[in-house]
Write a structure and sequence with these properties.
Elements (H helix, E strand, L loop, with lengths): L2 H7 L1 H13 L8 H11 L5 E4 L6 E6 L2 E11 L26 H16 L6 E9 L7 H7 L12 E13 L3 E3 L2 E4 L1 E10 L3 E2 L9 H19 L6 E10 L5 E2 L2 E10 L2 H21 L3 E10 L2 E3 L1 H15 L4 E3 L10 H5 L4 E9 L22 H19 L1
Parallel strand pairs: 3-4, 3-5, 5-16, 6-15
Antiparallel strand pairs: 1-2, 2-4, 6-16, 7-14, 8-12, 8-13, 9-11, 10-12
Bound molecules: zinc ion (ZN) (2 copies).
């Protein structure tokens, strides 16, 4: 029986696991309840299991009956600090925590794929690593799992790695999307503090006002984006937090802001790292103020290997039909810590539409929204794709 049909046969159980995880979301690197649910789902399967020491990860290794390479499949498990407002019967029971990015689906689909592949253990030509990862949402859990040895879990390193991500909008349910090369952006954080000298707001000449200089820096960053970067190698800088002062008649001692910087090439990222702090400091000094400007690198660009992206596209067309997959014209400006895996192992990251049928993908609430809904109907397809990618990639040797 094709894996797709086998996945459909266990779709009910995959949905049950997904709902259980969804009702008890956990945030960050420490997800003990989610880890327990994954371990329970893998219980009895012929896999070697290890758990993380600095984070509640689960690594399961399935050794097939035949010799062959190692392939890694990854699903992330963490939720977001959002209070769910969907009203779903299986909505989060924990105020301030929600699976608003659909990682509950990834976890359940990966556990489902483990079941399907274990049932074919004897005929598998090689080894599959199942990487259940905490802390994708800003905690770099993938990097920590790499440093704890996930890429060495099978003895030899994987020849290929695949990750799936559901989306509550944009793609209709069951539609896959990937592309060769950059798939998601690098995301870095800029922290700027302009140091002035406070005083009476009516006598600014007797003080050193940090506010206008900080505003100038914010605007100059937007000019920097358009004047220093190739329009075909895009950069986004968004100041998401800006704080200064307490009231209208007091000049504050300092002004502080935070920005995110997104880029798609090492060249652009290096240039940002050099130009942003310099611009901030020099504007400050033009006003006789000192500026602390930090550029902290967070997640690198998620780069799909061209051959692996083509392979994944072929598998999608073959298993689900040519209308069920698209090659995305552009990368996504979001970021992913699966990028740390793809820095070391060639592979592909694939998006999967999970927009409910009663919503318009163009206007449906996005991932991270308190209203985001991911349809269970995507679960069987995601499970089947994980399993098919592993089986077919192992067969290639
Ligand atoms: Zn997210
Ligand atoms: Zn996510």
């Amino acid at each position: 029986m094709p894996l797709r049909n086998e996945a459909a046969d266990i779709a009910g159980e995959i949905a049950e696991l997904r709902h259980a995880i969804h009702q008890e979301p956990e945030i960050g690197l420490d997800l003990p309840k989610t880890q327990q649910k994954v371990l329970a789902a893998l219980d009895g399967l012929p896999v070697e299991i290890s758990t993380g020491s600095g984070l509640s990860s689960v690594t399961a290794v399935l050794r097939g009956g035949g010799p062959g390479p190692v392939v890694l499949l990854r699903g992330d498990m963490d939720a977001l600090p959002v209070t769910e407002e969907t009203g779903l019967p299986y909505a989060s029971r924990i105020p301030g925590a929600m699976h608003a990015c659909g990682h509950d689906l990834h976890t359940a689909m990966l556990a489902g794929a483990a079941r399907l592949l274990c049932a074919r253990q004897a005929e598998l030509p090689g080894t599959v690593i199942f990487m259940f990862q905490p802390g994708e949402e800003g905690y770099a859990g993938a990097r920590q799992m790499i440093s704890e040895g996930v890429l060495a879990a099978a003895g030899s390193r994987p020849v290929a790695a695949y990750g799936l991500h559901v989306t509550s909008n944009r793609l209709r349910c069951g539609m896959f999307s990937t592309r060769p090369g950059p798939m998601l952006a690098a995301a870095d954080q800029i922290t700027v503090t302009v140091h002035g000298r406070g005083g009476h707001a009516s006598q600014p000449h007797r003080a050193a006002d940090p506010v206008p200089a900080a505003c100038e820096i914010v605007l100059a960053l937007q000019t920097l984006v358009t004047r220093k970067f190739d329009v075909f190698d895009p950069v986004v800088i968004t100041v998401g937090s800006f704080h200064a002062g307490t009231t209208d008649n007091v000049i504050p001692d300092k002004a502080t802001f935070l920005a995110t910087a997104r880029s798609f090439s090492p060249e652009a990222r290096n240039a940002l790292q050099e130009l942003v702090p310099r611009l901030a400091r020099d504007i400050g000094s033009a006003h006789g103020l000192t500026v602390d400007a930090e550029y902290a690198t967070e997640y690198p660009v998620t780069v799909n290997d061209a051959a692996e992206a083509a392979f994944a596209t072929g598998v999608i067309a073959d298993v689900f039909g040519p209308g069920q997959g698209e090659i995305a014209q552009f990368p996504i400006t979001g970021a992913e810590d699966f990028s740390f895996v793809l820095e070391q192992v060639p592979g592909a990251f694939v998006m999967l539409g999970a927009c409910p049928p009663d919503r318009d993908p163009e206007t449906a609430p996005t991932n991270h929204s308190a209203l985001a809904v991911f349809d269970d109907a995507a679960l069987a397809d995601g499970t089947a794709l994980y399993a098919e990618l592993a089986v077919r990639r192992l067969s290639l040797g």
